[in-house]
Amino acid sequence: TSSPAAPSSQNLTGAGGWSPLTSDRYQWLEVDLGERTKITAVATQGRYGSSDWLTSYLLMFSDTGHNWKQYRQEDSIGSFPGNSNADSVVQYKLQQPAVARFLRLIPLDWNPSGRIGLRLETYGCPYTSDVVSLDGSSSSSLVYRLSPGTRRTPRDVVSLKFKTVRNSGSLLHAEGDGGLSLSLELERGKLQLLLRRGSSSEPRRLASLGSLLDDQHWHHLAVERRSSHLNLTVDKHTERVQIPAEFSHWEIRQGNVTFSCVEPVSVAVTFPGPQSFLQLPGASASSSSGGVSVGFQFRTWNKAGLLLTFGLPQEGGVVWLYLNEARLRLQIHKLWSDISSALNDGQWHSVELNSRRGRLSITVDKEEGGGAHASPTFPVAIQSQLFFGGCPAEDDGQECRNPFNVFQGCMRLLTLDNQDVDLIMVQQKELGTFSNLQIDMCGIIDRCSPSRCEHGGRCSQSWIAFHCNCSDSGYSGATCHSSVYEQSCEAYKHNGNTSGHFYIDVDGSGPIRPQLVYCNMTEENTWMVIQHNNTEATRLRPSSLGNQHSVHFDYATEEEQLSVAISQSEHCEQELSYQCRRSRLLNTPEGSPFSWWLGGPGAGRVQTYWGGAQPGSQQCACGLQGDCVDPQHYCNCDADRMEWTEDSGLLTHKESLPVRSLVLGDIQRPGSEAAYRVGPLRCHGDKNFWNAAFFDKETSYLHFPTFHGELSADISFLFKTTASSGVFLENLGIKDFIRIELSSSTQVVFSFDVGNGPLEVRVESSVPLDDNRWHRVRAERNVKEASLRLDDLPAATQEAPADGHFHLQLNSQLFIGGTASRQKGFRGCIRSLQLNGVTLDLEERARITPGVRPGCPGHCSSYGSFCQNRGRCVERVNGFHCDCGLSAYTGVFCNTEVSASFKSGTSVSYTFKEPYELSRNSSALPSSIYSDTTLRGENVSLSFRTSQKHLALLINKHGEQAFILKELVSHHCLFLLQVDQNPREDFNLTSDGEFNAVKSLVLGKVHGESSDDLDPDLARLGSLGFTGCLSVVSFNSISPLKAALLHPDTSPVIITGPLARSNCGSSASANPYAAENTHHLSGRRREGPLVNAIRTDSALIGGLIAVVIFVVVTGLAITARFLYRRKETYRNQEVKGVNQDDSPDFPFNNQADPQNASSENPKEYFI
Question: Coiled coil located at which positions (predicted)?
Answer without folding.
Answer: none
